[in-house]
DNA sequence: CGAACGGTTAGCATCACACGAACTAACGTC
DNA sequence: GACGTTAGTTCGTGTGATGCTAACCGTTCG
Protein backbone atom coordinates (compact mmCIF):
# COMPACT_ATOMS: atom_id res chain seq x y z
CA UNK A 1 0.00 0.00 0.00
CA UNK A 2 2.74 2.43 0.88
CA UNK A 3 4.62 1.60 -2.26
CA UNK A 4 1.53 2.18 -4.35
CA UNK A 5 0.87 5.41 -2.56
CA UNK A 6 4.38 6.65 -3.11
CA UNK A 7 4.16 5.82 -6.80
CA UNK A 8 0.86 7.67 -6.95
CA UNK A 9 2.30 10.70 -5.20
CA UNK A 10 5.21 10.69 -7.60
CA UNK A 11 2.96 10.49 -10.63
CA UNK A 12 0.89 13.36 -9.33
CA UNK A 13 3.90 15.52 -8.64
CA UNK A 14 5.44 14.74 -12.00
CA UNK A 15 2.24 15.65 -13.82
CA UNK A 16 1.99 18.84 -11.82
CA UNK A 17 5.54 19.73 -12.65
CA UNK A 18 4.87 19.29 -16.32
CA UNK A 19 1.81 21.49 -16.23
CA UNK A 20 3.72 24.09 -14.29
CA UNK A 21 6.46 24.04 -16.87
CA UNK A 22 3.92 24.77 -19.55
CA UNK A 23 2.50 27.75 -17.75
CA UNK A 24 5.35 29.20 -15.80
CA UNK A 25 7.23 30.59 -18.69
CA UNK A 26 4.51 32.34 -20.58
CA UNK A 27 6.14 35.24 -22.25
CA UNK A 28 3.02 37.35 -22.06
CA UNK A 29 3.79 37.47 -18.37
CA UNK A 30 3.49 40.91 -16.88
CA UNK A 31 7.12 40.72 -15.84
CA UNK A 32 8.07 41.56 -19.39
CA UNK A 33 6.13 44.81 -19.42
CA UNK A 34 6.59 46.11 -15.89
CA UNK A 35 9.45 48.30 -14.84
CA UNK A 36 10.58 46.76 -11.58
CA UNK A 37 14.01 45.91 -10.34
CA UNK A 38 14.75 42.77 -8.41
CA UNK A 39 15.06 44.53 -5.08
CA UNK A 40 11.79 46.29 -5.65
CA UNK A 41 10.10 43.01 -6.52
CA UNK A 42 11.55 41.40 -3.42
CA UNK A 43 10.12 44.14 -1.24
CA UNK A 44 6.71 43.76 -2.85
CA UNK A 45 6.80 40.01 -2.29
CA UNK A 46 7.74 40.55 1.34
CA UNK A 47 4.91 43.05 1.76
CA UNK A 48 2.42 40.49 0.53
CA UNK A 49 3.13 38.30 3.50
CA UNK A 50 3.86 41.12 5.93
CA UNK A 51 1.86 44.15 4.99
CA UNK A 52 2.70 47.10 7.16
CA UNK A 53 6.02 45.65 8.21
CA UNK A 54 8.39 48.18 9.86
CA UNK A 55 11.35 49.30 7.77
CA UNK A 56 13.83 47.86 10.25
CA UNK A 57 12.42 44.38 9.70
CA UNK A 58 12.51 44.78 5.95
CA UNK A 59 16.20 45.57 6.17
CA UNK A 60 16.75 42.27 7.91
CA UNK A 61 14.89 40.30 5.27
CA UNK A 62 16.67 42.04 2.44
CA UNK A 63 20.06 42.23 4.08
CA UNK A 64 20.60 45.93 3.35
CA UNK A 65 20.92 49.05 5.47
CA UNK A 66 18.10 51.38 6.38
CA UNK A 67 19.61 54.00 4.09
CA UNK A 68 19.44 51.65 1.10
CA UNK A 69 15.96 50.48 1.95
CA UNK A 70 14.79 54.06 2.21
CA UNK A 71 15.80 54.61 -1.39
CA UNK A 72 14.13 51.40 -2.57
CA UNK A 73 10.91 52.28 -0.80
CA UNK A 74 11.12 55.84 -2.14
CA UNK A 75 11.06 54.47 -5.64
CA UNK A 76 8.28 51.99 -4.92
CA UNK A 77 6.23 54.83 -3.47
CA UNK A 78 7.03 56.92 -6.54
CA UNK A 79 5.73 54.08 -8.74
CA UNK A 80 2.59 53.95 -6.63
CA UNK A 81 3.29 50.37 -5.53
CA UNK A 82 3.83 51.02 -1.83
CA UNK A 83 2.95 53.50 0.87
CA UNK A 84 4.53 54.56 4.15
CA UNK A 85 2.62 55.14 7.38
CA UNK A 86 3.66 56.07 10.88
CA UNK A 87 3.37 53.44 13.57
CA UNK A 88 0.54 54.08 15.99
CA UNK A 89 2.63 53.64 19.07
CA UNK A 90 6.07 54.82 18.08
CA UNK A 91 6.24 57.70 15.67
CA UNK A 92 9.81 56.92 14.69
CA UNK A 93 8.71 53.70 13.02
CA UNK A 94 7.62 53.69 9.38
CA UNK A 95 5.35 50.88 8.35
CA UNK A 96 5.52 49.96 4.69
CA UNK A 97 2.33 48.89 2.98
CA UNK A 98 1.58 47.30 -0.35
CA UNK A 99 -0.66 49.61 -2.37
CA UNK A 100 -3.57 48.31 -4.47
CA UNK A 101 -1.51 48.95 -7.58
CA UNK A 102 1.40 47.07 -6.07
CA UNK A 103 -0.80 44.14 -5.20
CA UNK A 104 -2.24 44.13 -8.67
CA UNK A 105 1.08 44.12 -10.46
CA UNK A 106 2.36 41.38 -8.20
CA UNK A 107 -0.74 39.29 -8.75
CA UNK A 108 -0.32 39.65 -12.48
CA UNK A 109 3.28 38.59 -12.32
CA UNK A 110 2.52 35.59 -10.13
CA UNK A 111 -0.51 34.58 -12.15
CA UNK A 112 1.63 34.23 -15.20
CA UNK A 113 -0.09 31.17 -16.57
CA UNK A 114 -3.59 32.04 -15.57
CA UNK A 115 -5.02 32.81 -18.95
CA UNK A 116 -3.56 29.71 -20.53
CA UNK A 117 -4.84 27.71 -17.61
CA UNK A 118 -8.34 29.04 -18.01
CA UNK A 119 -8.26 27.97 -21.61
CA UNK A 120 -7.39 24.48 -20.45
CA UNK A 121 -10.10 24.35 -17.82
CA UNK A 122 -12.66 25.24 -20.46
CA UNK A 123 -11.64 22.11 -22.33
CA UNK A 124 -12.43 19.78 -19.44
CA UNK A 125 -15.71 17.92 -19.25
CA UNK A 126 -17.97 18.49 -16.28
CA UNK A 127 -16.99 15.27 -14.58
CA UNK A 128 -13.35 16.24 -14.56
CA UNK A 129 -14.14 19.73 -13.34
CA UNK A 130 -16.16 18.30 -10.45
CA UNK A 131 -13.28 16.04 -9.57
CA UNK A 132 -10.94 19.00 -9.72
CA UNK A 133 -13.20 21.01 -7.47
CA UNK A 134 -13.24 18.22 -4.94
CA UNK A 135 -9.50 17.91 -5.02
CA UNK A 136 -8.91 21.61 -4.68
CA UNK A 137 -11.33 21.85 -1.78
CA UNK A 138 -9.44 19.13 0.01
CA UNK A 139 -6.15 20.77 -0.80
CA UNK A 140 -7.39 24.01 0.69
CA UNK A 141 -8.50 22.14 3.80
CA UNK A 142 -5.08 20.56 3.99
CA UNK A 143 -3.48 23.97 3.53
CA UNK A 144 -5.43 25.38 6.43
CA UNK A 145 -4.54 22.46 8.65
CA UNK A 146 -0.93 22.84 7.58
CA UNK A 147 -0.94 26.53 8.34
CA UNK A 148 -2.39 25.90 11.78
CA UNK A 149 0.36 23.44 12.56
CA UNK A 150 3.01 25.82 11.35
CA UNK A 151 1.56 28.79 13.16
CA UNK A 152 1.56 30.66 9.87
CA UNK A 153 -0.74 33.54 9.02
CA UNK A 154 -3.50 32.79 6.59
CA UNK A 155 -4.68 35.59 4.29
CA UNK A 156 -7.98 36.85 5.58
CA UNK A 157 -10.02 36.10 2.51
CA UNK A 158 -8.93 32.48 2.69
CA UNK A 159 -10.05 32.11 6.24
CA UNK A 160 -13.31 33.95 6.11
CA UNK A 161 -14.42 31.98 3.09
CA UNK A 162 -14.23 28.64 4.81
CA UNK A 163 -17.61 29.33 6.45
CA UNK B 1 -26.44 23.34 -17.90
CA UNK B 2 -24.27 26.11 -19.14
CA UNK B 3 -25.02 28.16 -16.06
CA UNK B 4 -24.05 25.25 -13.85
CA UNK B 5 -20.92 24.70 -15.79
CA UNK B 6 -19.93 28.34 -15.56
CA UNK B 7 -20.50 28.30 -11.83
CA UNK B 8 -18.37 25.17 -11.58
CA UNK B 9 -15.58 26.74 -13.63
CA UNK B 10 -15.70 29.79 -11.43
CA UNK B 11 -15.49 27.75 -8.26
CA UNK B 12 -12.56 25.82 -9.62
CA UNK B 13 -10.71 28.93 -10.64
CA UNK B 14 -11.39 30.64 -7.34
CA UNK B 15 -10.10 27.66 -5.39
CA UNK B 16 -7.03 27.53 -7.56
CA UNK B 17 -6.39 31.18 -7.04
CA UNK B 18 -6.54 30.73 -3.30
CA UNK B 19 -4.08 27.89 -3.36
CA UNK B 20 -1.78 29.87 -5.56
CA UNK B 21 -1.92 32.79 -3.19
CA UNK B 22 -0.80 30.54 -0.37
CA UNK B 23 2.22 29.32 -2.23
CA UNK B 24 3.26 32.15 -4.46
CA UNK B 25 4.78 34.40 -1.89
CA UNK B 26 6.96 32.06 0.03
CA UNK B 27 9.86 34.12 1.21
CA UNK B 28 12.23 31.18 1.19
CA UNK B 29 11.94 31.52 -2.56
CA UNK B 30 15.24 31.29 -4.33
CA UNK B 31 14.68 34.73 -5.72
CA UNK B 32 15.83 36.17 -2.41
CA UNK B 33 19.17 34.46 -2.55
CA UNK B 34 20.06 34.57 -6.21
CA UNK B 35 21.94 37.41 -7.82
CA UNK B 36 19.97 38.05 -10.98
CA UNK B 37 18.73 41.26 -12.48
CA UNK B 38 15.37 41.56 -14.09
CA UNK B 39 16.69 41.59 -17.62
CA UNK B 40 18.75 38.53 -16.93
CA UNK B 41 15.71 36.77 -15.49
CA UNK B 42 13.66 37.73 -18.51
CA UNK B 43 16.25 36.25 -20.84
CA UNK B 44 16.32 33.03 -18.84
CA UNK B 45 12.53 32.81 -18.97
CA UNK B 46 12.59 33.37 -22.71
CA UNK B 47 15.24 30.70 -23.13
CA UNK B 48 13.04 28.20 -21.36
CA UNK B 49 10.49 28.41 -24.12
CA UNK B 50 12.95 29.04 -26.92
CA UNK B 51 16.21 27.37 -26.15
CA UNK B 52 18.84 28.13 -28.71
CA UNK B 53 17.00 31.21 -29.95
CA UNK B 54 19.16 33.52 -32.13
CA UNK B 55 20.27 36.79 -30.52
CA UNK B 56 18.36 38.87 -33.02
CA UNK B 57 15.08 37.29 -31.93
CA UNK B 58 15.88 37.83 -28.29
CA UNK B 59 16.37 41.53 -28.98
CA UNK B 60 12.86 41.67 -30.37
CA UNK B 61 11.34 39.98 -27.35
CA UNK B 62 13.23 42.18 -24.93
CA UNK B 63 12.96 45.37 -26.91
CA UNK B 64 16.67 46.21 -26.69
CA UNK B 65 19.48 46.51 -29.18
CA UNK B 66 21.95 43.81 -30.07
CA UNK B 67 24.66 45.75 -28.29
CA UNK B 68 22.70 45.70 -25.04
CA UNK B 69 21.73 42.08 -25.37
CA UNK B 70 25.35 41.14 -25.93
CA UNK B 71 26.19 42.58 -22.53
CA UNK B 72 23.28 40.86 -20.82
CA UNK B 73 24.22 37.51 -22.33
CA UNK B 74 27.86 38.11 -21.44
CA UNK B 75 26.90 38.36 -17.80
CA UNK B 76 24.57 35.36 -17.94
CA UNK B 77 27.39 33.35 -19.49
CA UNK B 78 29.75 34.63 -16.80
CA UNK B 79 27.27 33.40 -14.15
CA UNK B 80 27.14 30.03 -15.89
CA UNK B 81 23.43 30.38 -16.63
CA UNK B 82 23.62 30.51 -20.43
CA UNK B 83 25.84 29.50 -23.30
CA UNK B 84 26.38 30.76 -26.82
CA UNK B 85 26.76 28.55 -29.89
CA UNK B 86 27.19 29.25 -33.55
CA UNK B 87 24.31 28.48 -35.89
CA UNK B 88 24.95 25.45 -38.06
CA UNK B 89 24.00 27.16 -41.30
CA UNK B 90 25.00 30.75 -40.77
CA UNK B 91 28.10 31.36 -38.72
CA UNK B 92 27.16 34.96 -38.04
CA UNK B 93 24.21 33.86 -35.92
CA UNK B 94 24.70 33.21 -32.21
CA UNK B 95 22.21 30.88 -30.61
CA UNK B 96 21.71 31.41 -26.91
CA UNK B 97 21.08 28.37 -24.75
CA UNK B 98 19.94 27.88 -21.20
CA UNK B 99 22.62 26.05 -19.25
CA UNK B 100 21.81 23.32 -16.72
CA UNK B 101 22.64 25.77 -13.93
CA UNK B 102 20.38 28.34 -15.51
CA UNK B 103 17.54 25.88 -15.78
CA UNK B 104 18.04 24.86 -12.19
CA UNK B 105 17.95 28.33 -10.77
CA UNK B 106 14.90 29.18 -12.82
CA UNK B 107 13.13 26.03 -11.73
CA UNK B 108 13.85 26.89 -8.13
CA UNK B 109 12.47 30.38 -8.55
CA UNK B 110 9.35 29.20 -10.33
CA UNK B 111 8.78 26.30 -7.97
CA UNK B 112 8.57 28.64 -5.07
CA UNK B 113 5.73 26.81 -3.40
CA UNK B 114 6.79 23.31 -4.28
CA UNK B 115 7.87 22.15 -0.87
CA UNK B 116 4.75 23.45 0.75
CA UNK B 117 2.70 21.82 -1.98
CA UNK B 118 4.33 18.46 -1.44
CA UNK B 119 3.45 18.70 2.22
CA UNK B 120 -0.15 19.22 1.21
CA UNK B 121 -0.21 16.32 -1.22
CA UNK B 122 1.04 14.02 1.50
CA UNK B 123 -2.03 14.93 3.52
CA UNK B 124 -4.47 13.75 0.85
CA UNK B 125 -6.04 10.32 1.00
CA UNK B 126 -5.49 7.91 -1.85
CA UNK B 127 -8.89 8.52 -3.39
CA UNK B 128 -8.21 12.22 -3.70
CA UNK B 129 -4.77 11.60 -5.11
CA UNK B 130 -6.21 9.30 -7.76
CA UNK B 131 -8.78 11.92 -8.65
CA UNK B 132 -6.00 14.49 -8.88
CA UNK B 133 -3.96 12.22 -11.09
CA UNK B 134 -6.92 11.80 -13.43
CA UNK B 135 -7.51 15.51 -13.56
CA UNK B 136 -3.88 16.34 -14.19
CA UNK B 137 -3.66 13.74 -16.95
CA UNK B 138 -6.63 15.29 -18.64
CA UNK B 139 -5.22 18.74 -18.18
CA UNK B 140 -2.00 17.64 -19.82
CA UNK B 141 -3.98 16.18 -22.70
CA UNK B 142 -5.84 19.45 -23.01
CA UNK B 143 -2.57 21.32 -22.89
CA UNK B 144 -1.20 19.29 -25.75
CA UNK B 145 -4.34 19.82 -27.81
CA UNK B 146 -4.15 23.50 -27.01
CA UNK B 147 -0.53 23.70 -28.04
CA UNK B 148 -1.26 21.98 -31.33
CA UNK B 149 -4.00 24.45 -32.09
CA UNK B 150 -1.76 27.36 -31.24
CA UNK B 151 1.18 26.01 -33.19
CA UNK B 152 3.25 26.39 -30.03
CA UNK B 153 6.35 24.36 -29.26
CA UNK B 154 5.96 21.77 -26.58
CA UNK B 155 9.01 20.96 -24.46
CA UNK B 156 10.43 17.65 -25.61
CA UNK B 157 10.03 15.81 -22.34
CA UNK B 158 6.32 16.62 -22.38
CA UNK B 159 5.82 15.28 -25.84
CA UNK B 160 7.90 12.14 -25.64
CA UNK B 161 6.19 11.09 -22.45
CA UNK B 162 2.76 10.89 -24.00
CA UNK B 163 3.64 7.49 -25.43
C1' DC C 1 17.89 65.88 30.25
C1' DG C 2 20.81 62.79 27.78
C1' DA C 3 21.43 58.60 25.42
C1' DA C 4 19.61 55.56 22.24
C1' DC C 5 16.78 54.63 18.41
C1' DG C 6 14.34 54.84 13.56
C1' DG C 7 14.44 56.81 9.44
C1' DT C 8 16.00 60.24 5.95
C1' DT C 9 19.36 62.70 3.30
C1' DA C 10 23.81 63.62 1.19
C1' DG C 11 27.92 62.10 -0.89
C1' DC C 12 30.39 58.68 -3.09
C1' DA C 13 31.31 54.33 -5.61
C1' DT C 14 29.89 50.43 -8.32
C1' DC C 15 27.19 47.89 -11.40
C1' DA C 16 23.92 46.93 -15.02
C1' DC C 17 21.69 48.54 -18.69
C1' DA C 18 20.83 51.33 -22.72
C1' DC C 19 22.19 53.53 -26.94
C1' DG C 20 24.95 54.82 -31.18
C1' DA C 21 29.10 54.21 -33.64
C1' DA C 22 32.73 51.50 -35.33
C1' DC C 23 34.41 47.18 -36.49
C1' DT C 24 34.83 42.31 -38.18
C1' DA C 25 33.27 38.15 -40.00
C1' DA C 26 29.84 35.99 -42.67
C1' DC C 27 26.36 35.74 -46.16
C1' DG C 28 24.01 36.30 -50.63
C1' DT C 29 23.73 38.32 -55.10
C1' DC C 30 25.51 39.73 -59.40
C1' DG D 1 35.58 38.03 -57.15
C1' DA D 2 33.43 42.37 -55.82
C1' DC D 3 30.06 44.46 -53.33
C1' DG D 4 26.29 45.46 -50.33
C1' DT D 5 23.98 43.72 -46.45
C1' DT D 6 23.67 41.33 -42.14
C1' DA D 7 24.76 39.46 -37.21
C1' DG D 8 27.17 40.17 -33.44
C1' DT D 9 30.89 42.32 -30.52
C1' DT D 10 33.33 46.10 -28.55
C1' DC D 11 33.82 50.79 -27.12
C1' DG D 12 32.44 55.12 -25.19
C1' DT D 13 29.04 57.61 -22.85
C1' DG D 14 25.09 58.48 -19.97
C1' DT D 15 21.45 57.09 -16.67
C1' DG D 16 19.33 54.86 -12.88
C1' DA D 17 19.45 51.75 -9.06
C1' DT D 18 21.77 50.02 -5.39
C1' DG D 19 24.92 49.96 -1.62
C1' DC D 20 27.52 52.04 2.10
C1' DT D 21 28.99 55.60 5.75
C1' DA D 22 28.19 59.75 8.07
C1' DA D 23 25.39 63.39 9.54
C1' DC D 24 21.06 64.94 10.87
C1' DC D 25 16.42 65.27 12.98
C1' DG D 26 12.53 63.73 15.45
C1' DT D 27 11.06 60.37 18.83
C1' DT D 28 11.34 57.43 22.80
C1' DC D 29 12.82 55.97 27.29
C1' DG D 30 15.23 55.77 31.67
From TrEMBL, chains A, B:
InterPro entries for this protein: HTH_MarR-typ, MarR/SlyA-like, WH-like_DNA-bd_sf, WH_DNA-bd_sf
GO terms for MF: DNA-binding transcription factor activity
HTH marR-type domain span: 5-141
GO terms (BP aspect): response to stress
PROSITE patterns reported in the protein's UniProt record: HTH_MARR_2
Pfam families, sorted: MarR (PF01047)
Top-level taxon: Bacteria
Listed PANTHER family: MARR-FAMILY TRANSCRIPTIONAL REGULATOR, TRANSCRIPTIONAL REGULATOR, MARR FAMILY
Protein name: HTH marR-type domain-containing protein
